[in-house]
Write a structure and sequence with these properties.
With 235 residues, the chain is mainly β. The protein contains one helix and twelve strands.
């Protein structure tokens, strides 16, 4: 892991948090792993840059660039490209679609579904499909969400659909500027569990930063840092 580069990223994030924070939106993504119920508003674009680093030599640091677009007020599509951080070597791309099954207030829980196609040709891995069933609930200021994640490889010896992981997350406002979050992940295929503390802030007009550190509890996983910056462009 390139710790000098990580220190620069963390320093820049802290500077932005301290000097530009103006108060977090209630509806934005608060977790680096768990997918929220919410979608981008119709006709709006959101550009996201992700930095992902692990302390495993076998898992190189990566940059992801994602562009989301609101097809309707309940459906968004996204395209993002993945590259290695060290040499910007191309790893692949993903196409995503998320649809909110109901409007807030229709049900006790907020449901949504998510489908992703991953082209992993640059990484030398099989292409795959990923589906998520998302539930979210507000209890006062506490925001709680779950993901049930299923995966299917499109080539290789095993192309069956597998229940891959279960995610449980919560976030709570910390003052007027930030939200603090916590995620639990159970990776069923790898018999691993992790916990991830998160910090989210809006740092300007339609500009937000999210950071989280995934910490292994059981199983073979290494710790992982994820930092995300996103800009929303309204109609």
């Amino acid at each position: 892991m390139n710790f000098n580069f990580i220190k620069k990223k963390i320093f820049c994030a802290i500077v932005l948090f301290c000097f530009l924070a103006k108060g977090a939106f209630a509806d934005e993504r608060k977790w680096v792993i768990t997918e929220p119920y919410w979608t981008v508003s119709q006709g709006s674009f959101e550009l996201e840059e992700w930095y992902n680093a692990s302390d495993s030599i076998a898992d190189p640091a990566q940059n992801w660039v994602e562009l989301e677009y609101g097809l309707t007020d309940r459906e968004q599509v996204a395209l993002y490209e993945m590259a290695n951080q060290s040499n910007f070597g191309y790893r692949g791309f993903k196409i995503e679609d998320k649809y909110r099954l109901a409007q807030p207030g229709d049900f006790f829980l907020l449901p949504a579904i998510y489908l992703e196609y991953a082209n992993n040709g640059g990484a030398g891995e099989p292409d795959g499909l990923e589906g998520k069933f998302i539930l979210e609930k507000y209890v006062g200021n506490l925001d709680v969400a779950t993901n049930f994640v299923f995966e299917k490889k499109l080539s290789g010896n095993d192309t069956a659909v597998h229940f891959d992981r279960f995610l449980l997350a919560g976030s709570y406002p910390v003052g007027d500027a930030f939200d603090a979050g916590l995620e639990y992940a159970a990776y069923t295929a790898d018999h691993a569990t992790t916990i991830t503390p998160d910090l989210f802030a809006e740092v300007g007009h339609n500009l937000r930063i999210l950071g989280g550190w995934e910490i292994p509890l059981t199983g073979p996983y290494a710790s992982r840092l994820r930092i995300e910056v996103d800009w929303e462009f309204n109609r």
